[in-house]
Write a structure and sequence with these properties.
With 455 residues, this protein is α/β, with parallel strands linked by helices. The protein is built from 19 helices and ten strands. Helix 17 links the parallel strand 7 and strand 8. Bound molecules: S-adenosylmethionine.
Length: 455
């Protein structure tokens, strides 16, 4: 097994190198920080698959050779990694190290700028560096590396210190750090209550959105979204909406631009982005299709913030006949009837079946026979852990890993779930819709667009 696994790694390394040489692409170099250029091999499917094979075989080697006791200890201490990452994000450690460059900075100086006791910060950085997040370049001296650099917000330390509550500003640069901060803070806390939640005879059996581990952890009675809607949670809401854009870092593209023939829709066609937040889903479509009109609906009043986010990203003012923001609760009847396209991106996965069906039925009642419903969520891939005889190692599917994380995130925060295709087809069918098209998904893409039409 050891020899087979190491041979598989060697073969896949040869494939990766050949693809890079033939196509003029690069693969990561440990001394280089992450950039689109450093990881350009991912644009080539064969190279990308070879890299996944190397990761699969290497993890299997680790599982085989590492003492089981250490494997379990590392798994059970994931919360320490998460907590240490949160410290680095909230106290601008990545930006401080960004200023220091590749020579790095002694922990006393990092601590001075971030306001933490040097000994305690040093112990966190030592732990993270041992996991390849940050590098220890000299004794007690740390530098960013290819993993930690993607947590850089592209803001200066001064900016972050002066306006920490404005940090999550909806910019693309901030979006991935916001996503990781969200996981390492609120989600971390919710996950600590999972066992109590599952043992609770009421909450553990419930379909209600306010019966999630989050509700136990934060001691609130309302659902996560209703909580975000409270004025005192404004900063959390901004972080959440910024983080939603950060999911783009986890995938090649969300398939939305190719899911519908947007350019073929008649001029003035109305696209309704239901539960659209700031309109992250619609924005790229709008950029390429000035002939379409967009209505971004959300329960939260995001009119001013949404407009500002679009203007920042488009670099120009947007007129209300091109895009309008509307406060609308998708559990009430849909005010826009006969739209060309209704978009539901990252919405259905945030609700249990009985609530998802209510949303779908309201859209069905407002649909014209020609309306289409574009659902963009992850679809849980068929699970298969069976090894074939030819291959000594288990397939590693990075998409499955991300979808499982997303599925459990939905359980932790909203008592909701990601669905398999047949689970999605079931809730569509009982709501008067049917799947019309599932455009091919890009390899390694987390999200699967599904186009449904009225039955
Ligand atoms: C996960 S976010 C997705 C946002 C956006 N579609 C995207 O992909 O970036 C879900 C959104 O649904 C909104 N939402 C939650 N409950 C709602 C309701 N009852 N009616 C309308 N919007 C709601 C939230 O405020 C949030 O902006």
């Amino acid at each position: 097994m050891l020899v087979q696994l190491s041979q598989s790694i060697s073969e896949a390394v040869s494939v990766l190198q050949k693809c890079c040489t033939d196509e003029g692409l690069s693969h990561p170099n440990p001394d280089q920080n992450f950039s689109e250029e450093s990881d350009s091999f991912r644009s080539n499917i064969e190279a990308s698959k070879a890299a996944d094979k190397i990761v699969a075989a290497s993890s299997q080697l680790i599982a085989l050779l590492q003492a089981p006791s250490l494997s379990l200890l590392r798994a059970a201490c994931g919360h320490i990694t998460s907590a240490a990452l949160r410290v680095c994000l909230e106290l601008s450690v990545v930006e401080i190290l960004g200023d220091a460059g590749s020579d790095g900075l002694h922990v006393t100086k990092i601590a001075q700028r971030s306001g933490i006791v040097p000994d305690k910060l040093g112990r966190l950085l030592r732990y993270l560096s041992n996991q390849h997040i940050f590098s220890q370049v000299a004794p007690d001296t740390y530098a960013n590396n290819r993993i930690s650099t993607i947590l850089h917000s592209k803001k200066s330390v001064k900016q972050l210190l002066e306006s920490s509550d404005q940090k999550h500003d909806g910019s693309m640069e901030q979006s991935f750090p916001s996503l990781i901060e969200l996981f390492a803070s609120d989600l971390h806390l919710s996950s600590g209550y999972l066992t109590e939640y599952l043992k609770d005879p009421v909450m553990g059996n419930s379909e209600e959105p306010n019966h999630a581990p989050f509700n136990k952890a934060f001691q609130v009675d309302v659902s996560l979204f209703d909580w975000y809607n409270q004025p005192e949670q404004a900063a959390r809401l901004r972080r959440f909406l910024t983080a939603m854009q950060g999911t783009d870092r986890l995938q090649a593209d969300d398939g939305l631009l190719k899911a519908i023939e947007w350019a073929e829709l008649p001029s003035g066609s109305i696209i309704v982005d239901v539960g659209g937040g700031w309109g992250n889903a619609s924005l790229p479509v709008a950029v390429q299709n000035p002939h379409l009109r967009f209505v971004i609906q959300d329960k939260v009043d995001l009119v001013a913030a949404g407009q500002a986010a679009w203007e920042t990203q488009l670099g120009q003012p947007v007129s209300s006949d091109r895009v309008s923001f509307q406060v609308h609760n998708f559990f009430a009847s849909q005010p826009i009837t006969g739209a060309s396209i209704f978009i539901l991106k990252h919405v259905l996965h945030a609700f249990s079946n009985s609530y998802a069906v209510k949303i779908l039925k309201n859209l069905r009642a407002a649909a014209a026979p020609s309306s289409q419903l574009l659902i963009i969520d992850s679809i849980i891939p068929p699970f298969c852990s069976v090894q074939d005889n030819e291959s000594p190692f288990l397939e590693y599917d990075p998409v499955a890993e991300m979808v499982y994380i997303s599925d459990l995130t939905m359980m932790l925060q909203l008592n909701a779930k990601e669905r398999t295709l047949s689970e999605l087809e079931y809730i569509l069918e009982i709501s008067g819709w049917k799947v019309a098209n599932i455009p091919p998904r890009h390899y390694n893409n987390l999200l699967t667009p599904v186009v449904a039409i009225p039955v």
